[in-house]
Design brief:
Layout: E1 5-11, E2 16-18, H1 28-39, E3 47-53, H2 54-59, E4 70-75, E5 88-91, H3 94-102, H4 104-107, E6 110-115, H5 119-126, E7 131-139, E8 147-148, E9 156-159, E10 169-171, E11 174-183
Parallel strand pairs: 1-6, 1-7, 3-4, 3-6, 4-5
Antiparallel strand pairs: 2-8, 7-11, 9-11, 10-11
This protein binds NADP nicotinamide-adenine-dinucleotide phosphate.
The site of NADP nicotinamide-adenine-dinucleotide phosphate has 28 residues, from strand 1, strand 2, strand 3, helix 2 and helix 5.
GO molecular function, one term: dihydrofolate reductase activity
Family: Belongs to the dihydrofolate reductase family.
Enzyme class: oxidoreductase
Length: 188
């Protein structure tokens, strides 16, 4: 069976996702949703894998590193020093990360795979045969951004997920909505 990549991202009206290697907004409800979705497993003895680019890893405050209860995969073309962290792996390419996900022994350890950004990683994953779903939070406000979500590919259909609230969310006067898009070309 192919590894199934679930992408999760929050984008504002201009599809911006980041500014100065940080999030352009502070929305606790959205952050809690991200943590809940990427951490939740059916089996207590398994964790999910989160895949991120090196800049996204750098943007996580030290006290929150690695993202807890999840196996952290970091993509970088440099040699990262990560020995102080448990459950953290670095890979030089997405293909290397996929090879790890396909390893027989490693397969027993994880349940779901979440790709958590940034921009190029989302793009590469959406173009791959492993792209299954995009969980996109649309923030209905414009923010100044220097990093953007890539163009959405053809062949997405909006689906529902019982874990994803359907109603409009509001925090600090900002409306946002959760969306789930499935890649109709994904072959299980
Ligand atoms: N709103 C959201 O949902 C969301 C989610 C994630 C991130 N963000 C924001 O986005 C910004 C960071 O994203 P970003 O797009 O600038 O950077 P990024 O994707 O997190 O990291 C880019 C780095 O990842 C490595 N990389 C990328 N593709 C690779 C590949 N195929 N193989 C090996 N390594 C690869 C390279 O690291 P090296 O340079 O070390 O080689 C590259 O410089 C921040 O502002 C962050 O807050 C927002």
């Amino acid at each position: 069976m192919l590894p199934k990549l679930n992408l999760i991202a929050a984008a504002c009206e201009n599809m911006g996702i980041g500014h100065n290697n940080n999030l352009p907004w502070r929305l606790k409800t959205e952050m809690d949703y991200f943590t809940r979705m990427t951490s939740k497993t059916k089996h207590q003895d398994k964790k999910n894998v989160v895949i991120m680019g090196r800049k996204t890893w750098d943007s996580i405050p030290k006290k929150f590193k690695p993202l807890n209860n999840r196996i952290n995969f970091i993509l970088s073309r440099s040699d990262l020093v990560l020995s102080e962290y448990k459950d953290v792996y670095s890979f030089k390419s997405l293909a290397d990360a996929i090879n790890k996900l396909n390893e027989h022994n490693f397969k027993n350890l994880y349940e779901n795979i979440w790709v958590i950004g940034g921009s190029h990683i989302y793009d590469e994953c959406m173009k791959s045969e492993y792209f299954y779903r995009l969980y996109l939070t649309r923030i209905h406000k414009a923010f100044e951004c220097d990093t953007f979500f890539p163009a959405l590919p053809e062949g997405l259909k909006e689906v529902s997920d019982e874990d994803v609230p359907k109603e409009v969310q509001n925090e600090k006067g900002i409306d946002f909505t959760y969306h789930v898009y499935e890649n109709v070309n994904f072959k299980d």
